[in-house]
Specification:
Blueprint: E1 2-6, H1 10-30, E2 35-41, E3 44-47, H2 54-64, E4 74-75, H3 79-85, E5 90-93, H4 105-114, E6 118-121, H5 124-141, E7 145-146, H6 157-164, E8 170-176, H7 179-191, H8 195-205, H9 213-216, H10 219-232, E9 243-244, H11 252-260, E10 263-272, E11 275-284, E12 295-302, E13 307-313, H12 317-334
Parallel strand pairs: 1-2, 1-5, 5-6, 6-7, 9-11
Antiparallel strand pairs: 2-3, 3-4, 8-10, 8-12, 10-11, 12-13
């Protein structure tokens, strides 16, 4: 299966390493041989219809800061040209998230679909801005569209709901969907450390961004909630539809009172048809959502199965490559591979 990688940051590199590591397994288990025929980043691109040497591509990108430094690479070559001109089956859209306009990922995905290429993305921006449009476009163009990695990283939230829970009506989705805020609240709970100190340490460890606003104010969680609502509940929600409160006002006293009541405080996203909410919630100790550290967790309330929960690592290039690879396998199977 011929693959184009659009975006070669942490996720693009992590996926490339997974392709190398899992090559024999994919061939043996699924008859799947991914062949990366092009890679693009903000500085340029490299194309080889026979398939790029991923080890050399990774070495060039890490040493020189761009895939264009690889043998045959070309600086200034745009992603749009690669998407439209290179013969490929699947385009991975792995560029950074832009929740305001969805660009450039939104345009990349549309162009790929119109060119008859299947799309896999981890990019929340296009899904938050234009989920229904992209879903409809994929159907009109007769291509597959997968986005498991956009919510939960390695945790197969969307695929669990769509496949393993088929036959159930989803009445509510509740989730701890942001590893940064979960890490901060966990440290505050277990160590009694003040918010400002834990945040600073999280930034030093690379768990929190230099500007952590999207995480702390619940915006990242709200984005993921919108994707779940649109993809699993059939809504046409936008970010502005989510009632949102962050964690910046959570102090040691609130943490202490929660502990005395046998509870813990988590930033939880809650989706019901017609209602989307993100905010700090009391979660009973021992509940599936009472996960620690940077873990993510989701609980589905269902009409037949009642409640089913799943938890796991919600971030990291290696972990997220699990979902990105799973989506490729799923497309391969759907197409009769």
């Amino acid at each position: 299966m011929r693959v184009v990688l659009v975006g070669f940051g942490n996720l693009g590199r992590g996926l490339s390493r997974a392709f190398i590591q899992k090559a024999s397994f994919l061939h043996r288990s699924y008859g799947l041989i991914p062949r990366v025929v092009a890679a693009v980043d903000e500085f340029g691109a490299v194309v080889d219809e026979k398939g790029l040497d991923l080890a050399r591509l990774l070495e060039a990108a890490e040493k020189k800061g761009t895939v264009a430094a690889a043998k045959g690479g070309k600086r200034g070559k745009l992603a749009i040209k690669v998407i439209e001109d290179v013969e490929a089956d699947v385009v991975y859209e792995l560029t950074p998230t832009n929740i305001k306009t969805g660009e450039p990922g939104l345009t990349h995905i549309k162009r790929a679909m119109r060119a008859g290429k299947h799309v896999i993305t981890s990019n929340k921006g296009p899904l938050v801005v234009a989920f229904r449009e992209l879903d409809s476009l994929a159907k009109r163009c007769g291509v597959e569209f997968r986005y498991s990695a956009s919510v939960g990283g390695a945790v197969p939230v969307i695929e669990l709901a769509r496949k393993l829970l088929a036959g159930n009506e989803i009445r509510e989705i509740r989730g701890v969907l942001n590893g940064t805020t979960n890490y901060i609240l966990t440290r505050m709970t277990t160590e009694g450390a003040p918010f400002e100190i834990v945040l600073r340490e999280a930034q030093e460890l690379g768990i929190a961004e230099k500007d952590p606003t999207l995480d702390l104010e619940g915006i990242d969680t709200a984005c993921k909630l919108v994707i779940l609502a649109d993809s699993l509940l059939g809504m046409n929600a936008k970010l502005g539809d989510v009632r949102r409160t962050g964690i910046t006002r959570i102090g040691p006293e609130a943490i202490r009172l929660a502990q005395e009541a046998g509870q813990t405080i988590k930033l939880v996203g809650i989706a019901r048809r017609g209602s989307l909410e993100v905010g700090p919630k009391l979660v009973p100790l021992g509940h599936p959502l009472a996960v620690g550290g940077t873990l993510n967790a989701v609980t589905f309330e269902l009409d037949l199965a009642r409640e089913i929960s799943i938890a796991g690592f919600g971030a990291g290039p290696k972990e997220t490559s699990s979902s990105l690879l799973g989506d490729l396998i799923d497309i391969h199977r759907t197409l009769g591979g």
